[in-house]
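Limitations

Structures in this collection are predictions, not experimental determinations, and the ligand pose is part of the prediction. Treat each record accordingly. The example that follows, with NAP as the small molecule, is included so readers can see exactly what is and is not provided: the inputs are given verbatim, and the output is the predicted complex.
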Amino acid sequence: MNQMVDLVIFGGTGDLSTRKLLPALYQLHRHGLAAQLQRIIATGRSEMSSDAFREAAKTSLRQVLDPSQWDESIWQGFQDCLYYVKLEASNETDYQQLKALLDQAQAPVRLFYLATLPSLYGSICQHLQRAAAVSKSSRVVLEKPLGHDLASCRSINEQVAAVFNEDSTFRIDHYLGKETVQNLFAVRFGNPLLHPVWKNSFIDNVQITVAEDIGVEGRGSYYAQTGALRDMVQNHLLQVLSIVAMEPPASLNPADIRDEKMKVLRCLETIDASNVKARTVRGRYDAGAVGGQAVKGFLEEAEYKDAKATETFVALKATINNWRWAGVPFYLRTGKRLSRRYSEIVLEFKKQPFSLFANDPNELTNKLVIRLQPDETISLHTLNKKPGLTRSLRLQPVELHLTDDPNSESQSYDAYERLLLDAINGDQTLFMRRDEVETAWRWIDSIIAAWEETAMPITPYNSGTMGPSAATALTARDNRSWYE
Ligand SMILES: NC(=O)c1ccc[n+]([C@@H]2O[C@H](COP(=O)([O-])OP(=O)(O)OC[C@H]3O[C@@H](n4cnc5c(N)ncnc54)[C@H](OP(=O)(O)O)[C@@H]3O)[C@@H](O)[C@H]2O)c1
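Predicted complex:
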């Protein structure tokens, strides 16, 4: 039987909580999936009563949710679970107030969700322990970014580990909560048709694109100290890469899946000063137009003196040195103010040895296209006969869709709903283990050190394009091109 859970959100008044966590919790409640969730206790620094917090939550939920999802009677039930406690992360007395509220109901499981500054994670955990608010069955959820390099990530992990053991620590990467990422397990390991071709003898290259059309949007100062490599590649892109490339796990248990993802990360060939110029591209958006609107360049937006040293776009060629993937480039790219918002994984199969067909200079290839955003779909791009009475047999591309209607109710949940539900149930499968995150940082740190050592330039690109031309050259040098 599932145990009752009290969820405490540190940063309960922040953007993430308002836009993602509370709406996801409301949806779980609406679908009857969070019966064991006893209370949701939001914390923030302002003085506020629980009633005032409920009013604010109602207003923001009504703005975020589709009107069809709003139900006053559901809200009444949901608001009864909501509480607010004023808490300044460094104030001992505030933790005593929180502890007193927690003790009132004595839920067997306390789930502490840290949706606030990562620099506070260690101190929050220590204070919780000092206030005797943590028991063996307590869990902690950590939001990204976990540090800005390996050393800072280790430091956070160590401080958290002094209070919570690894089995109770849930590191979020919301990409892992996407239906299509989980569907990758089903597609890869459920289909005897695909399993034999998922390797270097059949796959020519893999591409992972996470493209955003927005700029830094008021986060200029944070972003200027982070950049695209740390902000997106270290977590989302490497997590997706490790799932695409992992070996079949011994079981679907969290430990077995995470062991296999970890092996992939360990096999990533190091990018250092010897190969960084051939393997990576850094870009920064200039002014331009996105969706017909004129937009400013990054340097005009980022109020930070060292913004010139920050990339808003990165493309790179990763290689995985193991038997399955030797010789297969994994091209990764991500950036801001690109022509459109989408995230996609493309596995491009090798070409035929030669072509029999009149209109095919052997350029048309089979591809498996896994779309994560804005819609979540998987399609197999194949070729068949162009219909008609022409004398020569001609090919045309066709797409086989392997997913349900993306608008169907079964697919239309947010990644945070999945991840919150798993954290409530204590399932770590879709969360990152400490060694995964640290290994990813080690790989990223080497690239950053190589950029510094070689004074790697940042190439400007116009907003509304797909990044600098050097990114096109990255694949073109290998006689390949980005799938767009
Ligand atoms: N926003 C997103 O879409 C998003 C996505 C992925 C990850 N994240 C991560 O999630 C975390 C929160 O992001 P956010 O965008 O929600 O930030 P935010 O809007 O700035 O909110 C920060 C929250 O932390 C609280 N807080 C700040 N300093 C505090 C302190 N000293 N003691 C106690 N509480 C304190 C704030 O309380 P007050 O309101 O009372 O000041 C607020 O509730 C960050 O680690 C961020 O990187 C955010």
